[in-house]
Amino acid sequence: MSRTPDRFFIRRGLVLGIAAAPFAAHATARKGVVTILGDSITAGLGLPAAAALPAQLGLALARLRTAVVVRGAGVSGDTTEDGLGRLNFSVQADTDVCLVALGGNDLLQGLDPNTTKANLAGIVQKLKARRMGVVLAGMTAPRAVGAGYAREFSAVFPAVAKAERVPLYPDLLAGVGPSLRQGDGIHPNATGVKIIATGLAPIVARALAERALAERAPRPRR
Prior knowledge:
With 222 residues, the protein is an alpha/beta fold. The protein is 53% helix and 12% strand. Helix 6 (113-129) packs parallel to helix 8.
């Protein structure tokens, strides 16, 4: 009996399998997930969602050819203590990198910088325990709050980043002067948010790449 029909079906199956492979790879590919744990500045107070930081950071990362989903987890009025308290709820388990951008309300309330430092360290430690990458966004306190307090508060962020060995974006509002803020003089306008997103994108992209490498590295046997 001739084997031609068998060869035909085998060859056809191979062709279909090869053709389907790109689709299967595409279907299983997953974009990286970045969650922004923050306050009203990252939540986009006074701005439409498309102009807020989560959307703009996603666009800035796309320009760097980094495929990512950016989730906003900013709550207006939140202090570092609030962020620590809601971290497990607000930062979903599939997060690859969490951008921590808290502390502004601690500053406005004049909270003890040591308390802010302890809260931020707790946030970073919890995220690392969940095997998530972390980027810490700092801020520079204005001298109007008192030179000593401003110096002590501003030093919190690099100290935490160094102690916990996570990358630091030194000042969330860097480059966002008075003309790039809303009427309250605090929150960035749409152009200001774009400046923040553009500044953050490279360090977040590096954190995502490092996270991907860590995930692919073989784990030690127990």
